[in-house]
Design goal:
- 78% of the residues lie in helices and 0% in strands.
- It is an all-alpha fold and 393 residues long.
- The protein has one domain: MFS general substrate transporter like domains (Growth Hormone, Chain: A), CATH 1.20.1250.
- The relative contact order is 0.17.
Amino acid sequence: MTAEESPGGNVPGAVPALALGTFAVGTDAFVVAGFLPELAADLGVSTATAGQAVTVFAAAYALLSPLLATLAARLPRRRLLVGALLGLGAANLVSALAPDFAVLLASRVAAAAAAAAFTPNAGAIAAFLARPERRARALATVVGGLTAATALGVPLGGLAGQWTGWRWALGAVAALALLVAAAVAVLLPYLPGNPRVPLRARLAVLRRPAVRAVLPLTVLGMAAAYTVYAYSVPALAAVGLSARGTAWVLGLYGVGAVLGNLGAGLATDRLGGVRVLGVGYAVLAVGLAGLGGLAASGTRAPALVGLLAVAWGAGSWCQTPPQQHRLIAAAPGEAPLVVALNSSAIYTGIGAGTLIGGLAERSGAAVMFATAAGLALAALAYLSLTAGERATA
C-alpha cells in the first residue's frame, strides 16, 4: 500500500475516524501539560521532573515508531489501528492509577508505543485514500486531530485536573481512546498490510538527500514549539495569568494550532511546502519572542498574550502537513515509512524541546521563551539552507 497506489477517492467517514484517533493520541500526549503542577505535587516530584513524563513519552515514541512500522507491516491496517487504540486506553488507565512517578513513567512508555503504532499509519492511510491533488488536505485533516487536542483536549484536561484531579483526567483519556477504537473498527475499510521489509532496508530511504534534509528540520521546528509548552502553566503565570486564565490562553493557542494546520494544508497544495514553512517559522519566532518580552518586562497585557498565543499555536502546527507532503514527494513509494520517520522526528523534537525547557525553567519564563524563539529562527535558517535539496540520491 503506497501513495502511488491511491484509489483516487475518499472512503466516507474513514479520514474523520482517523482524525478522531489522532485526537485521542494528541490529547494523551499533551494533556499532562495542563495539570503538571498538580501531578508533581501529588507524586512528590518537582515540576521540572514531572515534565520529563512528556520527554519520556516523546523519546519512546521516536524510538519505537520505525521499529513498529517494520514489525507490524503485515498486519491489516484496521486491526493494527484498533489494537493501538485499545493499548492506548489500557496504558492511560495504568497512568491514572499510578501509585508513584516510576509507574507513571512506565505507563507513559506503553502509551507512546500505542501512539507510535497508530499515528504514522493513520497519516499514510489518509494519503492513500485521497486523490493526489487533495493529499495535503487529507494529511491536514488527520493531523488536525492532534491540533484539535491542543485546542480542546489539553485545556479541558487542565480544567478537569483542577476540578476533579489529574487521575480522573487521564481516566477520561482512556475512555476516549476506547470509544474511538470502536469508531475506527466500524468506519475504516479493510486494507491489507504491507510486505515485511527489514529495518535496514527501510532506512535506506535516508540516503535520499531530500529526506535527510527534511527530517532534521522537523526536529528543530518541534523543539522550538515545545520548549515552553509542557511548562506553560508556570510560564504563563509569569505574564500575569491565573490558572483559569492559563486554560483560556491554551485554548487560544489551540485555536491558532487548528488554523495553522488547516491553512497549511490548503496553502501547501497551492504554494508548496517551503513557502508555508518559512512563514510559519517566522510567525512562531514572533509569538515566542513577544511572550518572552512580556515576561521579562513584567508587563500585564492579557489581550496581547492571547494574540501571541494564537501565533505560537499557528506556527507550531503549520509545520506537519508541508513536512509530510515534502517527504511523500521525495519518496512516494515509501509513504508509510517516511510518515513514520517524520512522526519520530516530531516526537524527538518534542522530547528535546521539553528537556531544554526543563533546564531553562530554572532561569525563568523569559529565558524559556527566548530560547524557544531562537530555535524557531534556527529552523528558518536551516530551511533556507536546505530547501533546494533534490529528492533523488
